[in-house]
Design a protein that fits this description.
- The chain is an alpha/beta fold and 416 residues long.
- It has two domains: 143 residues, Lyase, Ornithine Decarboxylase, Chain A, domain 1; 252 residues, Alanine racemase (TIM Barrel, Alpha-Beta Barrel), CATH 3.20.20.
- The protein contains eleven helices and 19 strands.
- The radius of gyration is 23 Å and the shape is elongated.
- It binds ligand LLP.
- Ligand LLP binds next to helix 10 and helix 11.
Length: 416
């Protein structure tokens, strides 16, 4: 009766990369090797499963709806993955989108999102981007500074339009994540310091014709697995909201950003525990909150929906170290080099025998081009596939043509 064991927690979504008892891999429920072979898929390539994203987004929405009493709105953070079919699918499901540039805004509008469902974040909005956003009628501009607010006001006046906006508050908390992806500390470039808020409130109150204030927004960092700092940040935000209300501003909503991490070194069961912890933190911090809640998730929806398929070009053994040299590296996936991020690496076919330790590196002419260090493999051979797991978020979007290695396509797994 092994299969019914209580330890087999059912995660409420389609799983990404899984390893069977004999080391055989499946992705989104289908055998990986046979599917790639039958499709004669190009290597290197990313594979992306929309079924995984769709089911994870639905689970995310459901878990939060079960914990929170407020109306909830979800805006997918397109910076994590901007595949056209993915965006069309999410728009079709009724989700909104979070964009950080004029380019992303146009891409969102071109791929099915209604302008009212677009949230425009980002610290460096140009006049031109603001103009385009107001002309398109985007749902919300998340304002990052007093000079940006002044600029939005000028553009709104010149176009005779009203800008719907939120102010991104910097709550001065230190999220436990890699420093490059923490955003809510006072030394980060993001968000508005509490000291600047009264002046910004006055600008808004003096210009009701042009500035339609929605509320505050927050985003303290990405790949969060612990939410104590987020709980603190929300508390600080609610206190600041009260001060803004006392000054005469009306508040309709709170945008709590994204940031929910996944267990890159762990199982999908752990992901669901992380999500639950997030929902509980929000439920306790926002009990009785009278407005709408908005979210900007990226990674949690898409990371496990993608994998990078590469091939072993050489197995190189030196007196000091063994290397698996793959035909894609930092040109395709920059996360290990930029954030010391861990990505699982699995070989196809799986073999039996004794294992040895290898560094897994790419073809780029830089020593930093290392995808994983001290990984154990059994009898890896030239020509084997090396699958880099959990690469659907901040993978293909960060790829480059460095060393002119050529574009790495992102193909839809569901179509193979
Ligand atoms: N909202 C804002 C304002 C953001 O800056 C971000 C991510 C998100 C939402 C989505 O966060 P998520 O749910 O994906 O954590 N390239 C890095 C991650 C950078 C995150 C930037 N901001 C990485 O590969 O880990």
């Amino acid at each position: 009766m092994k299969s019914d064991s209580a330890s087999e927690v059912k995660v409420p979504w389609v799983k990404g990369l899984e390893k069977g008892p004999k080391g055989e891999l499946s992705f989104a429920g289908r055998p990986l090797e046979a599917t790639l072979k039958a499709a004669s898929a190009a290597v290197p390539a990313y594979v992306l499963s929309l079924a995984v994203v769709q089911s994870r987004a639905a689970a995310y929405r459901k878990v939060l709806a079960e914990h929170l009493e407020q109306p909830l709105y979800f805006h997918f953070a397109m910076k994590s993955n901007n595949h056209p079919a993915l965006l069309q699918m999410l728009a079709g499901e009724g989700y909104g989108v979070d964009v950080v540039s004029g380019g992303e805004m146009q891409w969102a509008l071109d791929h099915g999102f209604k302008s009212a469902d677009v949230v425009f974040s980002g610290v460096a909005k140009s006049k031109n981007e603001i103009q385009k956003a107001l002309e398109a009628g985007v749902g919300q501009l998340n304002v990052e500074s007093l000079p940006e607010l002044v600029r939005i006001l000028e553009v709104a006046k010149s176009l005779k339009k009203t800008a719907r906006l939120a102010i991104r508050f910097n709550p001065e908390v230190k999220a436990e994540t890699h420093p490059y992806i923490a955003t809510g500390f006072r030394e980060n470039k993001f968000g508005v310091d509490a000291l600047d808020l009264p002046e910004m409130a006055d600008v808004i109150l003096q210009n009701p014709e042009f500035l339609d204030f929605q509320g505050l927004s927050l985003h303290i960092g990405s790949q969060l697995l612990d939410f104590a700092a987020l709980g603190d940040a929300i508390q600080k935000t609610l206190a600041v909201e009260q001060q803004l209300k006392n000054r005469g501003l009306k508040i309709k909503s709170l945008d709590v950003g994204g940031g929910v991490g996944i267990a890159y070194k762990g199982s999908e069961d752990e992901d669901s525990q992380v999500l639950l912890k997030y929902a509980r933190t929000l439920a306790s911090a926002l009990k009785g909150y009278p407005g709408e809640l908005h979210f900007e998730p990226g990674r949690f929806w898409v990371a496990r929906a993608g994998a990078l398929v590469t091939r072993i070009e050489y197995v190189k053994r030196t007196p000091y170290k063994n290397f698996l040299i793959l035909n894609a590296g930092m040109n395709a996936l920059l996360r290990p080099m930029l954030y010391q991020a861990y990505h699982r690496i699995e070989l196809v076919p799986a073999r039996e025998g004794a294992s040895a330790v290898y560094d897994v590196v790419g073809p780029v002419c830089e020593s930093s081009d290392t995808l994983g260090t001290l990984r154990e493999f059994i009898d890896p051979r030239e020509g084997d596939l090396a699958i880099i797991g959990e690469a659907g978020a901040y993978g293909a979007v960060l790829a480059s043509n460095y060393n002119l290695l050529g574009a790495v396509p992102e193909v839809l797994w569901d179509d193979l």
